[in-house]
Amino acid sequence: MAKVLVSDPVAAEGVAILRRAGLEVDVRTGLSGAELKEIIGEYEGLAVRSETKVTAEILEAAHKLKIIGRAGVGVDNIDVPKATEKGILVVNSPEGNTIAAAELTVALFFALSRSVPQAHQSMKAGEWKRSKFVGVELYGKTAGVIGLGKIGREVAKRLKAMEMPILAYDPFLGKEQAEALGVQLVDLDTLYRNADFITVHVPKTKETTGLISDAQLAVMKDGVRLINVARGGIYDEAALLRGLESGKIGGAALDVWESEPVAPDSPLALHPKVVATPHLGASTEEAQVGVAVDIAEQIVAVLQGGSARAAVNMPSLPAEILHRTAPYLTLAEKMGSLKAQLARGSVTAVEIRYEGEFDTAQTVHLTRAVLKGLLVPALGESVNYVNAPALAASRGVKVTESRGPRSDDYERQITVLATDDRGTHAVTGTVFGKNDPHIVFLDTYPVDFRPSGHHIMVRNHDRPGMIGKIGTILGEGGVNIAGMYVGRDEKDGTAVMALSVDTAASPEVTETIRSLDGILSVRHVVL
Ligand SMILES: NC(=O)c1ccc[n+]([C@@H]2O[C@H](COP(=O)([O-])OP(=O)(O)OC[C@H]3O[C@@H](n4cnc5c(N)ncnc54)[C@H](O)[C@@H]3O)[C@@H](O)[C@H]2O)c1
Ligand SMILES: O=C(O)[C@H](O)COP(=O)(O)O
Predict the structure, then answer these.
(1) Ligand 2 lining (C-beta closer than 6 Å)
(2) ACT domain: which residues (predicted)?
(3) How confident is the model at residue 316 (pLDDT cuts 50, 70, 90)?
(4) Is 412 a catalytic residue?
């Protein structure tokens, strides 16, 4: 009988599904890292929420583990690359707590505008202070919603009922979709300058970490009120504290924190103008039952040899197909990610060409991998191999796929053509040997680099001295070049450079390269 460990408070309905399926279930919450490491070797399945930290060290000891179910959305507490390396499937429940998080956000709008928690606390202390707690109305105030995904959209719908005009920013959402929601799509600067309340609903990625810091606060209205039910660190906490102290920020309502659990003496959590909740966005009876049932069903299915509907790190495929497809899956996902990071504006169409021996059992999953790679920079952990096509469709991305004979260049190659504001551009990749993915063309320019780590992509007029100048700027910026691949097009005199670098280049370094005469574009990408 397979054993499953439930190491966080997951709703009883989910645990019952595991037991009814004949699995041996141990519910042991509050384990220390050392305790978990000691026992994890006994289990085939693990069910968690955000409290258990499933680190590389724990996974090293997880000799039998086949599946980790995250009863919720965020998998930032799980070392997903390590799980993938060990062949452990990670599944989550991307939709189960959307309404719960949206409703808490609205609750925080009210709590913040009327100082409900502070007034409550004052009365509990035996006081009766009416003039101290004069609030503001939501009616007629402008709300700024950053991120219009599942939760952001539900929040926007609800704020409209309060008759708040809504300014929204989501670089991956089309104008028509915004219009259908009745919100005005604006750039971030316009949102910051005009919103009375700002709420963030973006995933925590490298772009959104510290999205709002001192510079952004400086352009906001005096007395702006800020809400965060997404992830700690999207507002820089030190900047928030400075803004609260200076009076720039009228109040903040925070459900999520840079480090959880929050220290009992956290100056931010204790600040009188901060309404603080301990990561309660998903904590409703309905959402907890929903996410628990969702992951329990997936754990049962996978441990009984079936497939999961929300696999985060790899498709749940029969072993034979997975074996011959896996290296191309990695390649396909990296190519999707490369296209997303090189795109200008939102990608509206993707064409995927498979050349050489690929069968449909493979291409269906490879296309999903491309779409997952394309959407993850925007949607983070809520994208998986199963929902990627539907999410692409809901964002208006037109997807086409074709298969053809072996090309003149490689035995098997995949080309992804993505259309964005600049037109249609292609990337082609192949796998060398058994498991060595390479990018071999950017448009028609031949290149050759492994799609992993940091890269700087430059498009330039093909002139003498460019390579030297760029190398010098990177060297002076402390960025070590691990490899450089230059492709030229004799016809129009342009060239592309793909520089694999050991560390990220600072925005100043990329800006200096961009300012060189003859440079057409510069992008830093992480694959
Ligand atoms: N507090 C909680 O308990 C709780 C519960 C559920 C979800 N969450 C968090 O809420 C957030 C939103 O979740 P969701 O389910 O709506 O995700 P989602 O993937 O459906 O939506 C995220 C949206 O953010 C947009 N986006 C990505 N990068 C952006 C950027 N730089 N600027 C503006 N928009 C950007 C995407 O296009 C997408 O529309 C996530 O961080 C999630 O982890 C928190
Ligand atoms: O990512 C999520 O689903 C939410 O942040 C909820 O986390 P929790 O399950 O720890 O409440």
Answers:
(1) 49-50, 71-74, 97, 279, 281-283
(2) 455-527
(3) low
(4) no
Ligand 1 in contact with 416 (CB < 6 A)?
Answer: no
DSSP per-residue codes, 293-332: HHHHHHHHHHHTT---SSBSSS----HHHHHHHHHHHHHH
Give the distance, in angstroms, between the CA of residue 158 and the centroid of all CA atoms in the same chain: 24
C-alpha 153 to ligand 2 mean position (Å): 18
Domains recognised in the chain with CATH numbers: 1-93+284-315 (3.40.50.720), 98-276 (3.40.50.720), 317-443 (3.30.1330.90), 448-527 (3.30.70.260)
Atom number in ligand 1 closest to CA 76: 43
- Confirm whether 231 is a catalytic residue: yes
- Residues 219, 242: Cα–Cα separation, whole Å: 14
Instruction: Please say if 279 is a catalytic residue.
Output: yes
Residue 380 CA: which ligand is closest? 1
Q: Is the dihedral of CA 362, 317, 348, 487 positive or negative?
A: negative
Interval 340-373: pLDDT, tens: 999 888 899 999 999 999 988 889 989 999 999 9
87 Cα to the center of ligand 2, angstroms: 24
**Under DSSP, is residue 383 helix (H, G, I), strand (E, B) or coil?**
coil
